[in-house]
Amino acid sequence: MILISVARVPLYCQYRRHEKDIAHCERWGLYFAAMAALQGSLYGVAWFAFVPGGDQFFLSVVCLWVMGLSACAVVGYAAHPKTLLSFFAPVVVPGTVLLLMDGSERMQILAAALFLYGVVILLAAAPVYRSIVQSIELNLRLRELSEKDGLTGLANRRHFDETLQKELDRALRNEQPLSLLLLDIDHFKAYNDHYGHVSGDHCLRLVSDAIAGCVRRSGELLARYGGEEFALLLPNTDKTQLAATVERLQAAIRESAIPHAGRPDRLEQITVSIGGTTVERDYPANPESLIENADTALYMAKNHGRNQYYFYCRRSGQLAAEEPLAVAIA
């Protein structure tokens, strides 16, 4: 019994490391149920191992012990009904059979009582299970509300900031690149003035959907960073890969063809200005500087005609526009 309990420890540790992996959690649930069944079987053997010659007194004592044990199991296993059943059945069934085999009226009554008690225990576990599930669903819902933007359904700034810190720590630890894009809808105030704020909200949703369609890899995070500004975090993405991502984003916005008749220029459709930066191995950074660098590039894009992409990198001692797609900075 001690060995089984010890064997559960590495399983639990492995589960904690991969608890966000659904497939792994399902496998862990099967392992946990198997361990519970093995433990229940050992308790079931106790009926035969600790009752000398079918002594009725010892049978009664073991029966009471099993009843108490099964009641405790409800607390421990109610969150996983299959595990509860896999533990409970090997404990109760052998005892019920052994009591019936005794032949005496008293033991048969005790067998019936044990069986009915088992049914009651399983029925009692059902509301506990529902309560646990409802609590988990509520917590997940609250977490979702705290992490998502209500208008677009994207991650909100709070969730983005938390993820940025984690991904930056991981990138520096593993010596991997980490890229960040800030995107701003061009002339969005003019859009609201021309079409109204309800249409403006609809425009934000359309733009967010277009950008989200370009988020392809696991770990990439798109967030509404504020107002008409979006942030896209791209782990393990270097400058070259970032440029390819920007091309897809610009193409997606063009293909969405969202009308914007209120623009002061002649484009008459929604466009975005984009600023980007990348953390390389020799580029120590913190979340604040990373955002500041991307924002600097975005500012350059907006001040050089909009509908452009500027990239912030460390090269020279001054801010200089090398090409329409690049900004170099030390």
Automatic annotation (TrEMBL):
Show the GO cellular component annotation of the record: plasma membrane
Q: Which InterPro entries match?
A: Diguanylate_Cyclase (IPR050469), GGDEF_dom (IPR000160), Nucleotide_cyclase (IPR029787), Rev_trsase/Diguanyl_cyclase (IPR043128)
Enumerate the spans annotated as GGDEF domain.
176-314
In terms of superkingdom, the source organism counts as Bacteria
Q: Gene3D superfamilies, from UniProt?
A: 3.30.70.270
Name what cofactor the protein needs: Mg(2+)
Enzyme Commission no: 2.7.7.65
What keywords tag this UniProt record? Membrane, Transmembrane, Transmembrane helix
Key word Transmembrane helix present in the record?
Answer: yes
Judged by the first EC level, this protein's enzyme class is transferase
* Spans traversing the lipid bilayer: 28-50, 57-78, 84-102, 109-129
Output the CDD domains linked to this UniProt entry.
Answer: GGDEF
Supply the NCBIfam families for this chain.
GGDEF (TIGR00254)
Q: What is this protein called?
A: diguanylate cyclase
